[in-house]
Amino acid sequence: MKKNAEKKVNAVNAEEAGMTRYQDLSVEELESLRKELKQSYREYQNMDLNLDMSRGKPSLDQLDLSNGMMDALNSEADMYSSDGFDVRNYGVLGGIAEAKELLSDMMENNPDNIIIFGNSSLNVMYDSISRSYTHGVMGNTPWCKLDKIKWLCPVPGYDRHFAITEYFGIEMINVPMTEKGPDMDIVEKLVSSDESIKGIWCVPKYSNPQGYSYSDETVRRFARLKPAAKDFRIYWDNAYGMHHLYDHDQDYLIEILAECKRAGNPDLVYKFASTSKISFPGSGIASMATSLNNLEDIKKQMQYQTIGHDKVNQLRHVRFFEDIHGMVKHMMKHANIIRPKFEMIETVFEKNLEGLDIGSWTKPKGGYFISFETLPGCAKSVVDKCKKAGVKLTPAGATFPYHKDPEDSNIRIAPTYPPLEDLRIATELFCLVVKLVSVEKLLKEKTEGLSFCTV
Amino acid sequence: MKKNAEKKVNAVNAEEAGMTRYQDLSVEELESLRKELKQSYREYQNMDLNLDMSRGKPSLDQLDLSNGMMDALNSEADMYSSDGFDVRNYGVLGGIAEAKELLSDMMENNPDNIIIFGNSSLNVMYDSISRSYTHGVMGNTPWCKLDKIKWLCPVPGYDRHFAITEYFGIEMINVPMTEKGPDMDIVEKLVSSDESIKGIWCVPKYSNPQGYSYSDETVRRFARLKPAAKDFRIYWDNAYGMHHLYDHDQDYLIEILAECKRAGNPDLVYKFASTSKISFPGSGIASMATSLNNLEDIKKQMQYQTIGHDKVNQLRHVRFFEDIHGMVKHMMKHANIIRPKFEMIETVFEKNLEGLDIGSWTKPKGGYFISFETLPGCAKSVVDKCKKAGVKLTPAGATFPYHKDPEDSNIRIAPTYPPLEDLRIATELFCLVVKLVSVEKLLKEKTEGLSFCTV
């Protein structure tokens, strides 16, 4: 696996950059700077901006890439799957053969280990937890009959993951993310010692929000976990498996199902993916890959829930992409649209913030997000001030369970949706606001003689 | 509401029909008849039939009716909903405006009372029970925290309904169906006296399997139920609301949500429907209509489960049908295909079975099924013998909770899927088998002096 050597760019040495670190400024200098920044901020406010950098949504030109899918099936089309089913009628619980093949190529798994679901992998994750809650995992006690269920949450992470576990009253335990993935010392210790820990949320590739990819070592250690709970499962949300920014400079992961099998833990993982950010969000197809034992357990429940998912849409996807190579080519078109946005943000961050020591940011090679770390205690204020100038960001705290960022420092930047030029304005405003809030924090510290983040 | 005066055709008086009731035959006559029937049965067995009358599946020519839907959206199409959403992107949890309008016209409800879901109303029903089980209904105790949950099941009924409640360990109580709907004396008594009864399965129009429609009186009494449990809900599965066999001779029901509101019980009902047997089974759109209070309760949960359902497919449906009148015209095309099948079966039943007093059958004006009552203790044997001659029927017992038909007499006939001529052969075989099994039963009774159905 290639390492992501430079993902986290800490503000470089101030002298090298020829800029002064804000904390080295005097109170007078800070006050003068604040005045200047406030003036610029007011100018932005007068621009009546209305920009949304809050969610990982594809842009309109990304959506246009898949418009051809609307022609992939017409009224004259052959509506039979390769395994002989009329996709227009009832049945085929696990998905048609060619959709299994395409998505198994996408997920790097055997088609026999795949179930094709409906339009949302989030829904599949919710249903998996719900099923475990009502009926248990492989004959183990249903979670609703247990006093306490806990879950590991690498932080920062995906807010919709945390929302599901919170909704089911599951106690969430923060595990720090590193550039190589979750801190595995902590994961191993907790998972092996506490039977009430039943799962962990993972976005292993181009993680949400940092864009980190798990190292070989991390994947190997995941596959070798020795959970105290027999019904512990890794929720491996491979949301960005195909979502590279660059054609050659990509992250590769060890495939987790294969590694679990090799490690003698074949049933340890539920792996999720979907075409939501490949074809159309909300009108794609979702999938789960897992061991045959797990599949049997899941299908036993699924047969009560549905007669089958949308096979017409499955066929439409296969007819459009043709095969995994077609999908790879399609993803390069996405990359060509997204890449300039990520690169522009990086450039604007460097130009405006490097050397000031008031923030750091990640440089992902794929995925949908950049993660920004403000000085402690500043994230909420930055998001709030951006909002007041017409730029909507993901709420501060959203990347943590219970919306509680203990440092109040993490902000998720979602570059994909706005057009490039809008995004440039929003990013410049963001930098300005980071400066303003940082100056105010430093001023307060210097004048009050204490750090307001600890108040 | 029009009454279904002649739905259940009991064998007419033997003398009028010029036929002899089997039970009036002597042992010798029965033995001779058995020999003759067995000979005919063997001839069918030699035909190597392979016909499926087991499930309520549309036929191929019915599916062809909706092929035009594949052209309703192409790569040049305007992909914005009437309320301004790009249907290709994330969002719009409850469904796009025009889909709500179409389905609310279909369901006879206000668009504000509607949520559009994914491809399966069965899935919506499952999820509703699952949600009640994990989180409770409107702040009431989640069912998983209660010792005992019970459910009323009008019988015969829909096997997939019963399967869901059985899967959740809910105790199912049989309530006899009548031509006017469930026996409301029993329903009222049980619902008002037992707090552990949390729901009832209803297929109010062209019921599965009998094709009965609830009378005005029945709907009125449902709307006026006084459940002991605050979280009791009527699961009103309006699966066949548009599925008439005749243009003029249709059943009309009092709309249940409106009646509940008038009766001061606005939150009593969850009403379900889908386009599964209108457009494509498994690739249609499903919907729930209920009170605003219930909707709020449901959406609170849904937001954790999904970002939204397939809006492209919602738009595709509206563009294809245009409006409710378009859908009505479309349903007449279905009727033109289905009607001859229902009428043929009726004719073959009359010709072969009338006057023999060995079976009765329903004559629905819509829906997907005919219900057949054999002599007590004969249904399993009839289904089994049909299977051995190459005709697959819904398993006997499937129309009852726990697959237990106490009389072993109900058989669900699903006429839609096979082509007409295949269906005719299958129906003739069915009649022959009913005769054969009935003769054997009567012979056994006469020679052993006791009824084997009670053994």
UniProtKB/TrEMBL annotation, chains A, B:
InterPro entries with a match to the protein in the record: AspAT_Ic, PyrdxlP-dep_Trfase, PyrdxlP-dep_Trfase_major, PyrdxlP-dep_Trfase_small
MF terms in GO: L-aspartate:2-oxoglutarate aminotransferase activity
Pfam families noted in UniProt: Asp_aminotransf
Protein name per its UniProtKB record: Aminotransferase class I/classII domain-containing protein
Organism whose genome encodes this protein: Oribacterium asaccharolyticum ACB7
Lineage: Bacteria, Bacillati, Bacillota, Clostridia, Lachnospirales
